[in-house]
Amino acid sequence: MDHRELDAHEDPTLALLTVEEAARRLRIGRTLCFRLIGSGELESVPIGRLRRVPVAAIPEYVNRLRAANKTVAA
Fold first, then answer.
1. pTM of the model
2. How many CA atoms lie within 13 A of 49 on its CB side?
């Protein structure tokens, strides 16, 4: 693991993640992460030509998945 990966996992001051960092936190692949961003399921913001995922978007996405699962299971 290089220092950039370590920073993304341990630095609580980060406000934005790269798509790769967001995918790693969700334990999904980069391609699926881009698909979720493209469909609007996972929030992201453009910065110039870059695409970043707000740190808060990760738990929000997971919470929506959990809520949807509870609805289906009920």
1. 0.80
2. 0
